[in-house]
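Support reply, case 0932

Customer input (verbatim):
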Amino acid sequence: PNHFLSEPWRFYACGPEAKEKLRGLNDQKRKLAEGVPEMLVVTVASEHDLSEKLGLEDHAAVACATQNFMLSLAADGVGSKWMTGALGAPPEDVLAAVGAGAGEKLMGVVWYGYPQTPLSDDAKAPPRKKGLDGVLTRLP
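Our regenerated output:
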């Protein structure tokens, strides 16, 4: 879903050199990042200000595309985690490490790979803080 077919999503599939650049952005998190098999940097490329209606629509479209990617991974038994903090490094450093285009904004880094223990069909999601009643307003 995206307004006027603007396709605001940009994906950077990181090979060995790019992953090493990302790992080098924060020595305190290097060891954690070394355990991640694959990394995908996701950005939004919008001609609109992200605080305005069309910019917000572009941002939402990229978030939807990212979640769809992660759902597709899960369907294939691949675990994933969407890191918005991007290794505790400044967003501009992450963007530079992957050669992102001018004006792109970081949406996050998706870490993914096959888990050591396969995903189970009866896995339970963590308990929700608010639950349905905390986020749904029923209108007459």
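We compared this against your earlier run and they match. Two observations from our side: Strands lie at 9-13, 38-44, 79-83, 105-113. The radius of gyration is 17 Å. Please reopen the case if you see a mismatch on your end.
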